[in-house]
Amino acid sequence: MTLSSYAAKDLFQWFTDKEDILVLDVRNDKDFKRFQVESPYPFDMINVSYYDFMEIEEECVAKVPKGRAIRIVCAKEGSAKYVGEILVKHGFNDVRYLTGGIKTWGNLLVPKLVREEENYSLYQFIRPGKASCSYGLCSGNEIMLFDPSRNTEFYMDFAKSKNCKIIKTFETHLQADYISGSRVIAEKTGAEFWGNDGDFKGTKAGHTPLTDGESHTFSQDGPEVTVMFTPGHTPGSTSFIVDNTYMISGDMVLIESLGRPDLGGKAVDWAILLYSSMLKVKKLNDDLLVLPGHYMDWNEATDDLIFCLDFGHVKERNKDVYGIASEEAFIKYIQDNMRKQPDEYALIRLANANLEQYDPDKEEELDLGKNECAATAYAKAQEEVGK
Description:
387 residues; alpha/beta; Oxidized Rhodanese, domain 1; Metallo-beta-lactamase, Chain A; 2 domains; seven-stranded mixed β-sheet; 20 strands; globular
């Protein structure tokens, strides 16, 4: 019996394969409740603190069922390894600890092929630890990125694996819930970083301003990417229409609801913008396939675990929101569902504007945890339950 390690991608694979594993999280109760691993499918998980293992070893070991494959998670790796050694000593057979700790789960990106055409391929990069999605559009030997996360090495390695050069990276808005990778990717690769002046003017992010209605193309034959300004979640929120088929919507259109407009402290002003944008996008073709920037739950995914739904079904799914008939009623809906934004969001915005720079440990701390970007009654209700 020996202790071995595993990577975050292994854990996701075990989840999607529905393997019979028990996740043992040995962080303290506060950190465990703030952020934990999640799966597309049901699985077993218990939280027994590393400190308890140190002080009351026998009691803690008794809480872990024998005969199960045990996958230990901790903050940085060392605590999980320590607990794993205890379990092996007590006769547990299949025990592994997460290399790099919970941050590796938080930064994990899972590539999914959304569409393969003769002249392009479109990928969704799911980030399970943040419940967010970024995108890559390949054509020939070039790739465009949309809303990349701070795990910049992943995107550069992905481009290399496809024999592609990153030529452009787009931001749908100035992100508040995670640290963006566009600026760093542009610096490292020479790609052009595009953003909306509504969010990025006055920042030091180094963006090239987008223009509403403009098109972006590849050097050779490939799909056209059309820019559509959809302010509301932020003043510079932007959607991108790919090949007249897909809408990379950022936080404008989500499969569940819309992006909340109160993160900038101007809930009413931004709600007015969001209502106008909602009326604008309602006119789009129902067959347009929405690729959102975030998801609320895995039940929004397809059987292939891709977050994509035609706009007709998105509107039907959210008819209580899209059916709001006046600006005043929409503002009231937003105000009724407002909730406190995480304290980290203000600092993340400064990082994404390149107005503040943090060391890697601080970035990890700020970047960890699920998003709080949707304007939903569900989210408000969950907050009330947690009080």
